[in-house]
Amino acid sequence: MARRKIIAGNWKMNMTPSEAKELVATLKPLVNNPDVDVVYGVPAVDITTVVEAVKGTNVQVAAENMYFEEKGAYTGEIAPAMLVDAGVKYVILGHSERRGYFGETSEDVNKKILKCFEHGLTPIMCCGESLEQREQGITMDWIRMQVKIGFQGVTADQAKTAVIAYEPIWAIGTGKTATADQAEEVCKGIRECIAEMYDTDTAEAIRIQYGGSMKAANCKELLAKPDIDGGLIGGASLKPEFAEIVNYNK
Ligand code: PEP
After folding, report:
1. CB distance 211 to ligand 1 below 6 Å
2. Integer Cα distance of 22 and 2 in angstroms
3. Which residue has the least CA distance to atom 4 on ligand 1?
4. Looking at 104, 167, 184, 244, which residue is catalytic?
5. Residue 8's beta-bridge partner residues?
6. Which pLDDT does position 1 carry in this prediction?
7. Which of 36, 50, 156, 182 could form a disulfide with 198 if both were Cys (CB 3.0 to 4.6 A apart)?
8. Which of 95, 104, 129, 184 is the catalytic position?
């Protein structure tokens, strides 16, 4: 069965609620592709506004992080049930900025992924190598480790619904994109890793995005690759250009 493409924006720490409302309104008439699942990953404070603003469209909302406990004395954190109640469907987890600046480990990411499934949320788990790791020739070893730890305890049925975003750190926000062949090589490697952990059905079902300076100019080539099922888009998700990526096949 063909996998549906999934194009997700990662707004990062951009957009006040009023700006978010305006951006969604700008994108509304442009983002309109029935062949693609579209997701806006937005700051926590924007979630309610954006959920309201996308009503009546096929756009879903993602949180950019979530804590792995149910509730309680975790000042500043956000519980899975809060996201569900607010109308969130996806959670971006383990972004390299969270791993790099906030010390998130693959073990933390694993706990969060398991919690997502308990609450019916779909995780978008980010993984990716640094430039140094690529130059050392350990890209696939590193990513296989991130995937294997991230998916500890996840069942095959759960994994089938998950999303993995391959984001080489050296390509994020730098304007340097992995070539379509480089991106395909790693996305294919991730699918092979999932096949080893589970089975070919699971590997064929899971969706794997590429992220890292994806834009209107390079998205067609990347999205044409057999193992690239979508994109996680940072900078370009804050502009009307995002709609061009969503409409990549038009
Ligand atoms: C990201 O942060 O997930 C990302 C891919 O950013 P950019 O598109 O700006 O490189």
Report:
1. yes
2. 34
3. 234
4. 167
5. 39, 232
6. 65
7. 156
8. 95
Q: Please name the helix (run of DSSP H) or strand (run of DSSP E) that holds residue 26, with its range, or none.
A: helix 17-27
- Two tokens, residue 99: 């791993």
From the CA of 192, how far away is ligand 1's center (Å)? 24
Task: Give the β-pairing of 90-93 and 59-63.
Answer: parallel
Q: Give the mean pLDDT per block of 10 residues along the chain (250 residues).
A: 94 98 97 96 98 97 98 98 98 98 98 98 98 96 98 98 98 89 98 98 98 96 98 97 96
For ligand 1, the distance from its centroid to the CA atom of residue 71, given in whole angstroms, is 30
Q: Whose CA is nearest to atom 2 of ligand 1?
A: 234
167 tagged catalytic: yes
Amino acid at 220: K
Q: Is 172 in the pocket of ligand 1 (CB under 6 A)?
A: yes
Concerning whether 119 is annotated as a catalytic residue, the answer is no
Angular region, 3: left φ>0, alpha ψ -120 to 50, beta rest: beta
CB atoms within 10 A of CB 180: 18
Ligand 1 atom nearest the C-alpha of 233 is 8
Element of type H or E holding 133: helix 131-136
Q: What is the DSSP string of 62-128?
A: EES---SSSSSS-TT---HHHHHHHT--EEEE--HHHHHHH---HHHHHHHHHHHHHTTPEEEEEE-
Give 116's contacts (C-beta < 8 A, 6+ positions apart).
66, 80, 91, 93, 122, 123
- Identify the pLDDT of residue 175: 83
